UniProtKB/TrEMBL annotation:
<dbReference type="InterPro" id="IPR029044">
    <property type="entry name" value="Nucleotide-diphossugar_trans"/>
</dbReference>
<protein>
    <recommendedName>
        <fullName>2-C-methyl-D-erythritol 4-phosphate cytidylyltransferase</fullName>
        <ecNumber>2.7.7.60</ecNumber>
    </recommendedName>
</protein>
<dbReference type="GO" id="GO:0019288">
    <property type="term" value="P:isopentenyl diphosphate biosynthetic process, methylerythritol 4-phosphate pathway"/>
</dbReference>
<keyword id="KW-0808">Transferase</keyword>
<dbReference type="InterPro" id="IPR050088">
    <property type="entry name" value="IspD/TarI_cytidylyltransf_bact"/>
</dbReference>
<feature type="site" description="Transition state stabilizer">
    <location>
        <position position="16"/>
    </location>
</feature>
<comment type="pathway">
    <text>Isoprenoid biosynthesis; isopentenyl diphosphate biosynthesis via DXP pathway; isopentenyl diphosphate from 1-deoxy-D-xylulose 5-phosphate: step 2/6.</text>
</comment>
<dbReference type="InterPro" id="IPR034683">
    <property type="entry name" value="IspD/TarI"/>
</dbReference>
<feature type="site" description="Positions MEP for the nucleophilic attack">
    <location>
        <position position="217"/>
    </location>
</feature>
<dbReference type="GO" id="GO:0050518">
    <property type="term" value="F:2-C-methyl-D-erythritol 4-phosphate cytidylyltransferase activity"/>
</dbReference>
<dbReference type="InterPro" id="IPR018294">
    <property type="entry name" value="ISPD_synthase_CS"/>
</dbReference>
<comment type="function">
    <text>Catalyzes the formation of 4-diphosphocytidyl-2-C-methyl-D-erythritol from CTP and 2-C-methyl-D-erythritol 4-phosphate (MEP).</text>
</comment>
<feature type="site" description="Positions MEP for the nucleophilic attack">
    <location>
        <position position="157"/>
    </location>
</feature>
<comment type="similarity">
    <text>Belongs to the IspD/TarI cytidylyltransferase family. IspD subfamily.</text>
</comment>
<feature type="site" description="Transition state stabilizer">
    <location>
        <position position="23"/>
    </location>
</feature>
<dbReference type="InterPro" id="IPR001228">
    <property type="entry name" value="IspD"/>
</dbReference>
<keyword id="KW-0548">Nucleotidyltransferase</keyword>
């Protein structure tokens, strides 16, 4: 089987969450978010190695959290100025034997082991990139000028999907996409918000697979409360 490596991003500060420590170390049911994510990656049974991006000053905290949650080989690398730069540092730290790369966010701590297996299987079947997505439930407007802005137009909802992580790629494709992306991005504003965007920019197809409610992103304390409810309802299944 091709060797599978994961870049688990945990180097964000969590400004929108507003905690006094990095968001990846915030506790959900007494366990850091990054530990929840790592334990589900390990439980999938298809991951061979993990590199975790961590904020400067917190590498040891993140290492302790991840190694307490999973028994895979783990390396920690300092993150960059943007998520894109952090992922690039993670990719560079994976061993060269890795043929399939998953990029996952510690901010999505409950993405299931079954989802991980589905994504890896999709890439092993021969496609370059597979990402989880869910339908958009709100009506989405493109905004025009003004403060507050005006609604410029309504996007066709049936053509929209919200995408999640983990995102899975053939390693050579992701490495090439990040090299090309690094030449374009100068800072947090010019960086892309997901890795699939870099593959799309190469003109390669990114395949959508069914995502899941459990893979919600923890952005604010409200999301943490929802994750807690999901854990209660899942009766240990997540
Ligand atoms: N320079 C960065 C920025 C983000 N991330 C990671 O990318 C994921 C998605 O980012 P987000 O949810 O936006 O987290 P933060 O950047 O921490 O949040 P905020 O934008 O509110 O500060 C998170 O797991 C985060 O740790 C990272 O590794 N390096
Ligand atoms: C990668 C991601 O989780 C896919 O939805 C998302 O784009 C991260 O965005 P953020 O702005 O860094 O939270």
């Amino acid at each position: 089987m091709p060797r599978v490596g994961v870049v688990l991003t945990a180097a964000g500060s969590g400004q929108r969450f507003g905690a006094d420590l990095p968001k990846a170390l915030v506790l959900l049911r007494g366990r850091p978010l990054v530990a929840h994510a790592a334990s589900r990656l390990a439980a999938s049974g298809v991951v061979d190695e993990i590199v975790v991006t961590a904020p400067a000053g917190f590498l040891e905290h993140v290492h302790a959290a991840v190694t307490s949650a999973c028994d895979l080989p783990v390396r920690i690398v300092a993150g960059g100025v943007s998520r894109q730069a952090s992922v690039a540092a993670g990719i560079a730290t994976l061993t060269s034997a890795v043929e399939v790369i998953l990029v996952h966010d510690a901010a999505r701590p409950l993405a299931s082991a079954a989802l991980v297996r589905r994504l890896v299987a999709a890439v092993q079947s021969g496609i370059d990139a597979a990402i989880p997505s869910v339908p958009v439930v709100d009506t989405v407007k493109e905004i025009g000028p003004g403060d507050p802005p005006v609604a410029a137009r309504t996007l066709e909802r049936s053509q929209l999907r919200a995408v999640q992580t983990p995102q899975a790629f053939r390693a050579a494709v992701l490495r090439r996409a990040h090299e090309a992306g690094a030449a374009r991005a100068r800072d947090e504003v010019t960086a892309v918000s997901d890795d699939a965007g870099l593959v799309e920019a190469l003109g390669l197809p990114v395949h959508l697979v069914d995502g899941e409610a459990a893979a919600l992103k923890i952005t604010t304390p409200h999301d943490l409360a929802i994750a807690d409810i999901l854990l209660s309802e899942s009766d240990g299944a997540l």
